[in-house]
Write a structure and sequence with these properties.
Helix 1 packs antiparallel against helix 6 and helix 3 packs across helix 6. It is built from ten helices and six strands; from the N terminus they run H-H-E-E-H-H-H-H-H-H-E-E-E-H-H-E. By secondary structure, the chain is an alpha+beta fold.
Amino acid sequence: MFDASTEWTAAQQRVIDLVERAPAAAVASSVPACPDWTVRDLLSHMVGIGADVVAGHEPDDHNEAWTAAQVEARRDRSVTELVTEWRGITDAMVTHIRLSGDRPVNDIVIHEQDLRGALGAHGATDTPAAQHVRDRFAQRLAGRVAELPPLELRGQRWTWRSAEGDPAAVIAATDADLARALVSRRSAAQLRSWTVAGDIEPYLEGFAILGDLPSTDLHE
């Protein structure tokens, strides 16, 4: 059963465990899914989202200027300092989620996997939160390809169609890869390589829900 505040705090703890164990070189390394950021920058953003949200400073579009300011404001902070700040707003974030909705779960689930990709630490791909985010973004994809014939995503245990009827194109991959594709974390080349029926080309733009698809293949 999905409980947003429980899932958010569980993901927060997983992220903290990952960054506290990471050696300095890894913390300074680039994040493939967010190539302009290091691991420390990504953590700064995750902490900054929480700080801004509980302070009531959250634009609807989560624009680049907003996220860049979070990173810049924490440019000189260590992992320990960032974790301390984040733990300090946990209770306020839980209250926010319970009162205002589960949008923060999207951010933490997506960025936990971004972090895992940078650190080579596979895991947490089938949590209730991960399934919740997958299903939410599948519906967003359905809206983006509504003018096209049905598209099927065929995983190991999870299968989805954008609309009723026989699919005109089918992508078959792992459940985890499909979930990441839905949040614009898989390249067009990867989507093409997983196409087992039909032509995926008309659907590619639909996968760019959170921005352009990555130019290189991503893995976690």
